[in-house]
Amino acid sequence: MGAPNVVEIQGLGKVYSPGTPAEVVALRGVDLVIARGEFVAIVGPSGSGKSTLMNLLGVLDAPSSGTYRCDGVDVAGLDAAGRARLRLTRIGFVFQGFNLLSRMTALDNVMLPLAYAGVPRRERAERARRALSEVGLAERAHHRPSELSGGQQQRVAIARALVNHPPILLADEPTGALDSRTGQEILALFQRLRLAGITVILITHDGAVADAADRVVRIQDGAIVADERRREAA
Ligand code: ADP
Q1: Rounded to the nearest whole angstrom, what is the distance from the C-alpha of residue 174 to the centroid of ligand 1?
Q2: Mean pLDDT by 10-residue block, N- to C-terminus, for the chain (234 residues)?
Q3: Quick check: 96 and 173 in contact, CB under 8 A?
């Protein structure tokens, strides 16, 4: 088991095009600690730095300053292969547009990260089936994305994100392409996941979506301006 905190960020800064006329300070000295099993929403208006923070949390980009320990691992000490391994094993990604491969069945989509992680072929289908049944989609395993509703496609994407049992689920506007009722179902699924000890970090511009979380972190002009606990974490 790693540290009890799955995210420990200190003084995190991000400057795009430093030292040029196009320089943008997107994050300025962000401190953020997230414990295992929390359901946190990061909210803020367009341009506030949410995507920048998401890319740093997901180890998709490197900060200009500060430190980030992801599930106890200091990401600054990792090379590209180490960062890829960290993403594969510790972070599940969910996006607004689902990002499923259209020519593959739901089951094959969910099996993909298992192949990357080197799980033996005979175990992959069994584990992917279990992940699909955890999101209530066992009976849709052999359907392609085009044969599924938006909410079902997002649940397949969540099963894919969780199939390697990462401690962190990072969701970028996951309900943005869904009607509000279906969006609420996805948020209810996140609430159930955190009962299983998964840390859900949801990025959104929508305050109503953020209301589903236990804790709401508000970001503005690259800085955290509010950090509000609404419910006790699981
Ligand atoms: P949000 O996701 O909240 O809309 P972003 O993190 O995308 O905010 O953007 C924060 C600031 O950084 C904005 O001023 C944006 O224009 C700028 N920015 C984002 N990405 C880049 C980039 N790759 N190059 C230069 N500036 C960027």
Answers
A1: 19
A2: 81 97 97 96 96 96 97 96 95 95 97 93 94 95 97 97 96 95 96 93 95 96 96 68
A3: yes
Q: Is 194 in the pocket of ligand 1 (CB under 6 A)?
A: no
Minimum CA distance residue for ligand 1 atom 20 = 52
In short, whether 172's Cβ falls inside 6 Å of ligand 1 is no
Closest ligand 1 atom to 51 CA: 2
Q: What's the domain count of the chain? A: 1
Say if 20 falls within a structural domain: no
Range of the structural domain that residue 181 is part of: 36-64+79-229
Any atom of ligand 1 within 6 Å of the Cβ of 20:
no
Q: How many CA atoms lie within 13 Å of 185's alpha carbon, on the beta-carbon side?
A: 14
Residue 9 counted as domain residue: no
- DSSP for residue 140: G
Tens digit of each residue's pLDDT (9 = 90 or more) over 19-66: 999 999 999 999 999 999 999 999 999 999 999 999 999 999 999 999
* Residue 233 confidence (pLDDT): 61
Nearest CA to ligand 1 atom 12: 26
Among 48, 53, 95, 219, say which to mutate for ligand 1: greatest number of ligand atoms within 8 Å of CB: 48
Alpha helices (runs of H) in the chain, residue ranges in sequence order: 50-57, 80-90, 106-116, 121-134, 150-162, 180-195, 207-210
For the chain, the average pLDDT equals: 95
- Structural domain includes residue 212: yes
